[in-house]
Write a structure and sequence with these properties.
single chain; alpha+beta; BirA Bifunctional Protein, domain 2; SH3 type barrels; 8-stranded mixed sheet; 6-stranded mixed sheet; 33% strand; globular; disordered N terminus
Length: 302
Amino acid sequence: MQVKVVFPVELNFVVPRAYSVTMTLLDIGQLRRNVTGYKTIQYVTTTGSTNADLLKSGEPGAVLIAGTQTAGRGRLGRQWASPEGSSIALSVLIDDPPVERLGLLPLAMGLAATDTIEGTHLKWPNDVLVGDKKLAGILAQADFSGEAREASAAEAGAGSATAPRVVIGIGINVNLTGDQLPVPHATSLTLAGFHEQASDPTAMVEKLLVAFERRQAQWKAGDMQLLDDYRKACVTIGQDVRLETPAGQVKGRADGVTDRGEIIVEGTAYSAGDVTHLRAQLRPHSGAAKSLNPKRAHTRRT
């Protein structure tokens, strides 16, 4: 993998309503000066997958950022690629991960994103939304003895002879235009009106890394404030949902999220699945705590 330091270069592009935005490529020097909580911060213009690169050869505590991904992965094995210069892919190889809390790691990165971009919220487990449109996606992967797979609440406490390599990645749509969106329910910073963040991605990434440093510390310490904040930011809670699980489809009300990061639907906790909101709810609920004692669905991972 060739690492290339990119100094600020301005690119002009046009977004709807003839709103012209100037986008500055990432200033890696600024990030290294201002963000000190990671061992290394590297930038590449193009790579297959930042997650895969770090899992293969990264140093724990390393950050890898790419302007373009050609073979990225989304949740549940989906392929994810971005047109050149339209998105930011960022991954962190976790130093000394607490294996028993792997399922909460994507929630920590999701909260870091909402901390960074005001007005966003979360769909379980880790989609970053503006209204009902997806702005960013998150994927955590754990490499157990050379086998990389998606990390979820099902891995918590599973035990391993050696500590796994754990990576968390986020892909943010920066200046995708309407005809570039991968799915109709997606959006980008420019389309959603976040022109300041789109025109200065270095400042946004700096804020994101600082926010994730704090959320990662909460995750490692088992700080319940992380879950409290997630439940407030997660608009899935209280929604009527359709949940596609490895065992089949479930419909019902999403009652909450367990302390392991599982979604509770009609009294049953699920560690993995794909959620569709069946009715619109654009703002987070009050976050009021509920006394929940769900049964757990048995899911088989492949």
